[in-house]
Amino acid sequence: MEGNISKNFINIIKGVIISIIFTLIILFVFSIILTYTNISENFITPVIIVTTAISIFIGSSIGSLKVNKNGLLNGALIAGIYLLSLYILSGIINKSFNLNIQSFIIIISGMVCGMFGGIIGVNKK
């Protein structure tokens, strides 16, 4: 039982790390595109929301591949840890940090994509 819990914990952390790495890569590519093209800065918020949701989906589906059950819970945990880490880091970096409508959209879409990715990961054999 204890081995199962530590294995599951490792898979959850792996999913969070994969989500973070995927987010950083996509946002780095987007920043290069923004720098060298005439794309409006109005696209920043939608790109961040979509990137976060896709990253959480990919991380939770990969993190749940070796788990035999509770994909919904594992995906939600991966999304929750990712989002909590994101908002703690944002709070540390940005002293005037506050939650707004975009924050709630990111949280809701991230949790839904995390749970869906967890279900996909568990059922993909």
Structure in a nutshell:
With 125 residues, the chain is mainly alpha-helical. The protein has four helices and no strands.
Describe this structure in words.
Helix 1 packs across helix 3 and helix 2 crosses helix 3. This protein has one domain. The two termini are about 25 Å apart. The protein is mostly helical and about 120 residues long. Helices cover about 80% and strands about 0% of the residues. The chain is globular, with a radius of gyration of 15 Å.
Main attributes?
125 residues, mainly alpha, 4 helices, globular
User: What letter string, H or E per element, gives the SSE order?
Assistant: HHHH
Strand element count: 0
Q: What average pLDDT do the residues reach?
A: 89
Low-confidence stretches: none
Class per helix and strand makeup: mainly alpha
Helix coverage percent? over 70%
Number of domains: 1
The largest pleated sheet is described as: none
Q: Which shape, going by the Cα principal axes?
A: globular
**Total number of helices:** 4
Give me the oligomer status: single chain
